[in-house]
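REQUEST FORM: STRUCTURE PREDICTION
Request ID: SP-0412
Submitted by: Lab K.M.
Chain count: 1
Length (residues): 403
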Amino acid sequence: MSQTTSSHLLPVFARANLAFERGEGAWLIATNGERYLDFGSGIAVNALGHAHPHLVKAVSEQAAKLWHVSNLYRIPEGERAAARLCEASFADVVFFANSGAEAMECAIKMARKYHAARGAPERVRIIAFEGAFHGRTLTTLAAAGQAKYLEGFGPVAEGFDHAPFNDLEAVKKLIGPATAAILIEPVQGEGGVRVPDAQFLRGLREACDRHGLLLIFDEVQTGMGRTGELFAYQRSGVTPDILALAKGLGGGFPVGACLATAAAAAGMTAGTHGSTFGGNPLAMAAVNAVLDVMLAPGFITHVRRTALLLKQKLAAIRDRHPDILADVRGEGLLIGLKAVVPNGDLVAALRGEKLLAVAAGDNVVRLLPPLIIGEAEVTDAVERLARACARLDAAAPMKGAAS
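STATUS: Completed
RESULT:
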C-alpha cells in the first residue's frame, strides 16, 4: 500500500503505509506493535541488524564527546578507520564521504585526475555496464546510463560509454584513446542481483592493464561482508584500483568511502576534493564499531554458513512453487529471487507475512538480511516465504485457463 497520509515530504518515494518505532537484531517493531522480520536491512545498510549493542555504545559514547570538527583538522578516529580498511583490503588510502553516491563521485574524479596528472587530460571517458546503478547524482546517473532515471533532468553528463553486462568483446571495442577507466559492480544489486562471470572480471583487469586504464569496483552494496567476504572483489580474485563503499560501512549511520591504491590516487592532492561532513568523529565511531565486529574471528565464516543454509532452503521453495519463483541467485547474503509473478506482488505478499524484502530490476526480489542472522531467522523467513508463495499460487488463475 502506498503512502496515503498528507505529508510535507517531497513525494519521490512510493512508500508503503507502514512505519517502525524500534528494532531488535533482525526484527523491526511497527508503530502498531507488529513485528516484522527484516530481510531488507534498509537496502543492505543495517548489516549488524538493529540496535546492535556494540554499535549503540560506540556511537553514544562518541556523541557525548564530539560530533563534528571539519577536515581542517586531524580526525584520529578517521585515521584509525582508514588504516583498518587498508589493512583488510588492497587499498593504500581512503577518502570518507557521506553516501555511496559521494563515494562514487570521488572514484570518478580520481580516475580522471590520475590521467591528467600523468599528462593525458583527454582521458576522461569511463566504460560502465547496462543494468548498473551507481547513485542519484547527475554524474552517477550518467555513469549507469539508465533512461528511466535520467529522463527530465536535462543534458546527460558526458564521459560514459556503456557495454552489455558480461560481454568482454563489447568492452574491448569501446576502449579508445580517451578511455580512463572501467567501472563495474562485482554483483549488480539494483540491476537484479546479476553476478558477472569470473572470467569476465579477469578480462576487464587484463584490459585495464594492457591499455593503462583504472579498474573501479562499485561495492556500495556488495561491500562489508555482504557477499561472504569483507569485499566482493576478494571472492573473484580480481583486484580493482579504486573501490567505492557505503551502505553497511556504518551499520546504519550515513557514511561512504572511496578506497584506492597510492598510484591511482596520486593526482588527488590538497584542494582537489573535499567534504564538509565526510569522516566526522561520529561517523568514524560507527565505522570503527562495525569493523570491530566484522573483523573479529569467525564473523565472515558465519556469514558464509548462513548464506549456504538460506540458499539451500530457498531452492526447495523454488522447486515447490515454480509458478512463483524461477531462480535463486546471488552471492553470500545478497540474494535475488527471480520472480515469475510481478516482483511487486511478491514483495507485498511477503510483507503480508511480516517479512520485509526489496524489489530490484529484472523482476527480482532481493533478500538482504542482517549479517548477524542465524538458523532460527533463516528458518522463520523461509516459512514466511513459503506461505506467501502459497497465497500467490492460490490467487493465480487456473493453469490452462484463458487469460
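NOTES: The chain is about 35% helix and 15% strand.
Reviewed by: T.R.
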